[in-house]
Amino acid sequence: MIKDSVFAALDLANQRRAERRRFIKLAAGSTAVAGSLALLSACGGSNNDSTSPSPTPSPSPTATSTGVATDIGILQLALNLEYLEAQFYSIAVLGRPLPDASLTGSVGTRGAVTGGRSVGLTGTLAELAREIAYDEIAHVTALRSAITTAGGAALLINQPAINIDGGANGAFTAAARAAGLVGANETFDPYANEQNFLLAAFLFEDVGVTAYKGASPLITSATYLEAATGILAAEAYHAGLIRSELFARGTTAQLAANKIAAARDTLDGTGTRDAGIAVVDASGNPTGASNISAADGNGIAYSRSTAQVHNIVYLRRDAGIGGGFFPAGTNNSIEALRTSGATA
């Protein structure tokens, strides 16, 4: 039963937190900086298509070592994404934004959060969402700690400007229009009800899983690979739970989620890196069969590169800076990613 799976996953919360604490300890080791950075490069990935543009990151100071500078830049990109997810969940579920002390740094321009309010979730969904919210907040803390340990406070990024608004000019409305969930003159408010909240969470969660998956070929240390797979598993729990909750809500939710998946797959360039939550017939109607795992024919999760992830969160396919959920772009110091097709 879906609900039984939800409760079983929630019971693994303490185990996931232990894995995360172990990761922070590993990442802080001064003799293993490269391994720890490779681990967190998961949020950037390196599986670029030549046809997929690479958005230009905001310039910032570089470290003395080229290799370390690139790795720290990947860490910074990862933190940008975690700022976005953590702010969305913290405001929507806990009713408060992240504390200011968790958002400041030395790299890039500090930005505010536009939009967001408490959804007022109830029952099992409220418990599930609280668990995810605290996990995402912990990711922000872990990444900030790893960046400071590896490169110093001078390379810690500010939170960039984030748009999580559901109004006419909000990123969620733009995404919903692109997916065909609402018309050109309609809005999509992710805070209006539980189903809208789940669809908004679905938009983010699968992107995170594919980004972590994309980094797996970069990790050579067995120790760090073990830690990375533990974190990837926690992220996959989030995505699977959100997909399960949406599937359980029936045809309307299933078709909406399928449209979001299709839109993400269009934004990230050529090739298939996404899948809806419901199997449909030739007419596009749900058959009643689920597709909870976003995976290929071999049951292996899809991968996305930094450029492909940026395309989705920017809601654009060209190489311009910013848009969508990051109106002014992300804050990072990867100079190599300033040209199209780079594979840092």
What would you note in describing this structure?
This protein has one domain (2-338). 51% of the residues lie in helices and 3% in strands. The chain has ten helices and four strands, in the order ααααβαβααααββα.
The average pLDDT value, as a whole number, equals 78
Report the principal-axis shape: globular
Rg, nearest Å: 19 Å
Q: Spell out the helices and strands N to C.
A: HHHHEHEHHHHEEH
Structural class call reads mainly alpha
What is the domain total for the residues? 1
Largest sheet: 2 strands, parallel
Low-confidence stretches: 1-69, 219-225, 335-344
Q: Figure out the total of helices.
A: 10
Strand order of the largest sheet: 1-2
Helix content: 40-55%
Proportion of beta-strand residues: under 5%
Number of strands: 4
For the termini, the CA-CA separation is 42 Å
Oligomerization:
single chain
Give the gist of this structure.
With 344 residues, the protein is mainly alpha-helical.
Task: Summarize this structure as a short list of keywords or feature phrases.
single chain; 344 residues; mainly alpha; two-stranded parallel ribbon; two-stranded antiparallel ribbon; 10 helices; 4 strands; 51% helix; 3% strand; disordered C terminus; Ferritin-like domain-containing protein
